Amino acid sequence: MAIEIKVPVLPESVADATIATWHVKPGESVSRDQNLVDIETDKVVLEVVAPDDGVISEIIKEEGDTVLQEEAIAKFEAGASGDAKANSSDDKKDDSSKESKQGDEEGASSDKEETSSADLDVLSPAVRRLVAEHNLDPKQIPASGKGGRLTKEDVEKFIKDGGASAKSSESKKDSVSAPVSAGLREEKRVPMTRLRKRIAERLVEAQHTAAILTTFNDINMKEVVELRARYKEQFEKVHGTRLGFMSFFVKATVEALKRYPAVNASIDGDDIVYHGFYDIGVAVSSPRGLVVPVLRDADTMSLADIEAKIRELGEKARDNKLTVEDMTGGTFTISNGGVFGSLMATPIINPPQSGILGMNRMEDRPVVIDGEIVIRPMMNVALSYDHRIIDGRESVGFLKTIKEFIEDPARMLLDL
């Protein structure tokens, strides 16, 4: 029975999507619920799975094509097997082997011409990324796609077979034999993913529409470091998750938002919307770029709940499994550039939110405490905020509240 494989219903705010990666080829047998294709939207990657056991008979939309919701992208034969097609292909190969040598040479010449026609202008985004990342010449890669088109599998096979290293060695040899070309400069042109384009649009939008200002402070992490070292093993045994620093910052942020509600608010036209809940976005890196999944009702979560949820969302981000619901909303965001070694940074707010907390790396520094110079683990923190609704007094007080809670974490536990 023939079935059309269609684009899933897209989120309300998403108009179209892009075919990112096909995981199957026409004629290939697939199992029920096997992932057929990844479809990239502005926010998430959607997986389209096989409705039953069968065969993909035709791919209508290729990688890089723009598609709309419920648009047909492939044809599927339920209950069919790819064996017959494979046998047919084998028969064709046997027949072709009986052809004259002249025919073989002509076919080889034709294949070579089709392969040599592969260039960056006609490659799919996935293929272009692979070619650019490994500094490959697409004309040197045997193409097996329709009409001599280079596929992602062709490039991966070429790399696996040593094509990339061979090219690298060849380049080194060329540089020795032809020193004149050593000064040549190269450029790479790689298309933006939909997520990267959307991130760029939102960042520019934030800079153009909000009056962004940043205030800084530093935090003595000694108490939290010692508390974590004392209980981390027991914490993991009891709760099944590791105790990190982010949960302390989430709890401190929620307490600070309660005291300074304007930081948890947003602008809607000429109105200020004060949110009576605390949905905290936590920025995490993914293969597609920076994404911000949301911790719902963070004020009701324990340290263990926060750590477990952040771990879950982080794994989903790495596996491109985040849903629109995971990233929708959020009243405030925390971004930890410290994991990449950042010492000081000014984060940009995530519209329509009015504030974002930036964490940085922790390092031992000399500080003066009670008139004495001592070494303490210190961290710089930054609050970027929309000055249209948040005044300097509120921003400084907000950041100072976080500092006080982190430097004396018992206050959070005792609700003081």
Describe the structure.
The termini are far apart. The protein is elongated and about 75 Å long. Strands 9-18-17-16-12-15 form a 6-stranded mixed β-sheet. It has a 4-stranded antiparallel β-sheet with strand order 1-8-6-3, with no helix packed on it. 37% of the residues lie in helices and 25% in strands. The chain has 416 residues and is of the alpha+beta class.
Quick overview:
With 416 residues, the protein is an alpha+beta fold. Helices cover 37% and strands 25% of the residues.
Number of strands: 18
CATH topology tier name of the largest domain: Chloramphenicol Acetyltransferase
Please, how many helices?
A: 12
What structural category arises from helix and sheet content?
alpha+beta
Distance between the termini: 66 Å
Q: Looking across the biggest beta sheet, what order are the strands in? A: 9-18-17-16-12-15
Helix content: 25-40%
Percent of residues in β-strands: 15-25%
| Gyration radius, rounded | 28 Å
List keywords for this structure.
3 domains; OB fold (Dihydrolipoamide Acetyltransferase, E2P); 6-stranded mixed β-sheet; Chloramphenicol Acetyltransferase; alpha+beta; 12 helices; 416 residues; 18 strands
What is the strand and helix layout of this fold?
Layout: E1 2-6, E2 17-22, E3 29-30, E4 35-40, E5 45-49, E6 54-59, E7 66-67, E8 72-78, H1 83-97, H2 101-116, H3 125-133, H4 152-160, H5 163-177, H6 194-209, E9 212-220, H7 222-239, H8 246-259, E10 265-268, E11 271-274, E12 280-282, E13 284-286, E14 289-291, E15 294-295, H9 303-318, H10 324-327, E16 332-336, E17 355-369, E18 372-386, H11 392-407, H12 410-414
Parallel strand pairs: 12-16, 16-17
Antiparallel strand pairs: 1-8, 2-4, 2-7, 3-6, 4-5, 6-8, 9-18, 10-11, 12-15, 13-14, 17-18
